[in-house]
Amino acid sequence: MSYAKVLCVGLVGVTGHLVEVEADLAPGLPTVVLSGLPDTALNEARDRVRAAIVNSGQRWPNRRITVNLLPATLPKCGSAFDLAIAAALLAGSGELPLAPLDRVAVLGELGLDGAVRPVRGVLPMVAAAARAGISRVVVPLDNAAEAAVVPGVRVRAVDTLHRLVAFVRDGAPLLEPPSGQPPAACPGPDLADVAGQGFARRALEVAAAGGHHLALLGPPGAGKTMLAERLPSILPELDDAAALEVTALHSIAGLLPPDGRLLRRPPFQAPHHTATIASLVGGGTGLARPGAVSLAHRGVLFLDEAPEYTRGALEALRQPLESGRILLTRSRGGTEYPARVQLVIAANPCPCAKPSGDISCECTPLARRRYLGRLSGPLLDRIDVQVTLNPLTAAELMDAGLTIESSARVAERVGKARAAAAARWAAGGWRINAEVPGPHLRRPPWRLPADDTRTLRRLLDTGTLSARGFDRVIRVAWSIADLDGRDRPDVGDVDEATQLRTGSMA
User: Fold this and answer.
1) What CA–CA distance (Å, rounded) separates 312 from 276?
2) CATH 3.30.230.10 is right for the domain spanning 3-170
3) 300: which strand partners?
């Protein structure tokens, strides 16, 4: 037999596609031709596969070899095709029967010694195979736990090419995915560690309940970073669908823990203020890789010292904050990644950033305006809750932890509020209040009475609030009502939401 075909899976962004690896062996000058839009790493597979086959004790076919990856119009990247190419070549040369690999997806990178090495993105690859009707996959041993997360798929693992050959030729058993309980999660930062700042703590709880973006302004040492780092501790765990999305993104980036378990905690990304645009939103040559905004999907993206970021980096976040997705176009095509994040920014009020705040500030009014002016109006308009923290007093600092609620207690209220919102908006497919479109909230039966929104309407008419800001205040009011156990916001909820947005009751 001079022709063989083995199934594999290719990734374009976070989306997997079933790929047929064809091998045709014909008489002629010995050479290997690889077609089907391979990238550089995949083009080099011809040398890796040849060495792996020879060093595994198999005979290399000295013939003209053509390897084609279907569909040929789909860009192929990475080294996950190595194992499938080797199996197709050995089957095409008559060394292996193909029946045991019928309707089996084979994934893995080959070392020159025949070892099968782990690859990135196995979780979305296996999920794509399952959607295509493939119920059996063979993956590298180090990726087996990750692949086993996908329901309805029988996962087997290999550590060497020789083991795969023994399975196909002689029926030798493959390796089972490792079993065992995942390690206990280490306790993270607790909200009880934050001294004082009752108003900011309330803002953090409201933001968590509705998934709202949050801006924390204030002098150094007031607790901005501590509050932001503790936001994930009061968020509920991810459900199955969200956990699969988040874990798939981290799998592509190569950031999964060794046990390959599903990521249940909302992710937290805090890039340094020197981060480039590509590191924030994603980038790279050929096909773009996910950036911090996608790795924080369904979690928190924290920008500390926000005015120190480049203007271009901050402005690049505006579109994904609205749409919850980001489309990156590069030379080899466009790649779309999810980016439904909760943005938290922290900033000092001025360049000198005196701990006592405005009292001893040495900056001119122009310098203060220029510093905070690095946060553009359109970006701030997308941030639902904007609060200013005051310097801590000695009494607040010494009483820390004595009467302050822990993250566990706050998380319980946030969980109930999110459950109420999810039940209310289930018909529209929205999970949290921040996802509900503004027009939906301005139409019956969700439209609030005119008396409850009178102050808000005045702010809109005077230009203090934009139309986007109006809708965001209404969403925050719904979150406040959910936290307090009410079916609908009242005038007090709208006024509190307005205060959290503008800093005053107006």
Assistant:
1) 9
2) yes
3) 268, 342
Compute the distance between CA of residue 292 and CA of residue 20 in angstroms, rounded to an integer: 33
Cα separation, 504 vs 498, whole angstroms: 7
Which is it for strands 268-269 and 300-303: parallel, antiparallel or unpaired? parallel
In whole angstroms, give the CA distance from residue 262 to residue 200. 32
Do 3-170 and 191-404 show the same overall fold?
Answer: no
The answer to whether 147 and 256 have CB atoms below 8 angstroms apart is no
Transcribe 28-43 into DSSP letters: SS-EEEEESSB-HHHH
If we measure between CA atoms, which residue out of 73, 71, 58 comes closest to residue 162? 58
Class of domain 191-404: alpha beta
254-257 long-range CB contacts below 8 Å, 24 or more apart?
254/120, 255/295, 256/123, 256/146
329 pairs with which residues across the strands? 334
Instruction: Label the pairing between strands 104-106 and 136-140.
Output: parallel
Residues contacting residue 59 through CB under 8 Å, at least 6 positions apart: 53, 93, 95
**C-alpha 99: how far from chain center:** 39
Using alpha carbons, select from 382, 266, 370, 249 the residue that is nearest to residue 314: 382
Tens of each residue's pLDDT in the chain, 506 residues: 589 999 999 998 888 999 999 999 999 888 999 999 898 888 899 999 999 999 999 999 989 999 999 999 998 988 999 999 999 999 999 989 988 999 999 999 999 999 999 999 999 999 999 999 999 999 999 999 999 999 899 999 999 999 999 999 999 999 999 876 566 556 678 888 887 788 899 999 999 999 999 999 988 888 899 999 999 999 999 998 899 999 999 999 888 887 778 899 999 999 999 999 999 998 877 667 899 999 999 999 999 999 999 999 999 999 999 999 998 887 667 788 999 999 999 998 888 777 766 667 778 888 888 888 889 989 999 999 999 988 777 776 666 555 678 899 999 999 999 999 999 999 999 999 999 999 999 999 999 999 999 999 999 999 889 999 999 999 999 999 999 999 999 999 999 999 999 864 33
| Neighbouring residues of 263: CB distance < 8 A, sequence distance ≥ 6 | 238, 243, 246, 247, 250, 256
Burial 81-94 (b: 16+ CB within 10 A, else e): bbbbbbbbbbbbbe
Phi-psi region of 28 (alpha: psi -120 to 50; beta: other; left: phi over 0): left
Q: What share of the chain is helix, strand, coil (3-state, %, to 5)?
A: 40, 20, 40
DSSP state letters, 369-414: HHHHTTS-HHHHHT-SEEEEPPPPPHHHHHTTTTSPPPHHHHHHHH
First to last CA, the chain: 82
Task: Sketch the domain layout of the chain as residue ranges.
Answer: 3-170, 191-404
